[in-house]
Amino acid sequence: MKKIFWLLLLFICTSAAAQQSTASKYIELYKDAAIRQMNKNGVPASIILGVAMHESGSGTSKIAKYLNNHFGMKGKNNSSEIKSAYKGYESTEESYEDFIGALKRHQKFNRLFDKFSDSDYMGWAVGIQRGGYAASKTWAKQVIAIIKKYQLYQYDNQNISYIKPLDSEQEETPAIANQPSKSTVYRVKRGDTLLEIAKKFDTSVKVIKKKNNLRTANLRLGQKLEI
């Protein structure tokens, strides 16, 4: 009985190590592509990587291997290696870009581009789930867990980690924690005010205005502020 227990434990440990290795290799291979797409389209690199890893098993699914399809997008393909109703791409980055394009094309997701910044991965994950991207009610939790486990937020522009637990029974408003001691850059979102931003970063309107040479409290959508 003890032998079976130890063999089972060894199997679990080996499987976990293999999964970790696969995920790490995936991140190393595609983080630059995710960052490029973030800078081009405004979706956090952590979301691009986290969703792709969740949907494709970190690139181990058949459609990821043979079609470079990391999001389960339906469409035509010219593959002679696999028969599938899923879309084929020339590269993984092309799959990333098509995923973002699909978000832009659908009204339920399109609003997220104005609502959330390219560092607010929790907002994006919850927003994508609410838009009906996945049937699972725990989809956002699973994606956020991947982002936290592999620290994918480090590839986002502002490099701020959102760590508030996701509770499906209440309004999930992303909260910022562990504020860095050094100055960071915040991109103004729709509805932001200097007072709200100051409270969020535990500072004052006066300090923000001084750092950014602001004469008034008026803000522009997408404006970058040093905090």
Explain the overall architecture.
- The chain is mainly α and 227 residues long.
- It has two domains: 162 residues, Orthogonal Bundle (Lysozyme); 49 residues, Membrane-bound Lytic Murein Transglycosylase D, Chain A (Roll).
- The chain is 51% helix and 3% strand.
- The chain has ten helices and two strands, in the order H-H-H-H-H-H-H-H-E-H-H-E.
- A two-stranded antiparallel sheet has the order 1-2.
- Helix 7 runs antiparallel to helix 8.
- It is elongated.
- About 12% of the residues have low confidence.
Describe the SSE topology.
Layout: H1 2-41, H2 45-56, H3 62-67, H4 92-105, H5 107-110, H6 112-115, H7 121-130, H8 139-149, E1 185-187, H9 194-200, H10 205-211, E2 224-226
Antiparallel strand pairs: 1-2
Helix pairs in contact: 1-2, 1-4, 2-8, 7-8
Any descriptors?
Lysozyme, Membrane-bound Lytic Murein Transglycosylase D, Chain A, elongated, single chain, mainly alpha, 227 residues, 10 helices, two-stranded antiparallel sheet
Largest sheet strand order: 1-2
Mean pLDDT: 83
| Anisotropy-based shape | elongated
Oligomer: single chain
The percentage of residues in β strands lies in under 5%
Computed over alpha carbons, the radius of gyration is 20 Å
The low-pLDDT segments are: 9-13, 159-181
Q: List the total number of helices.
A: 10
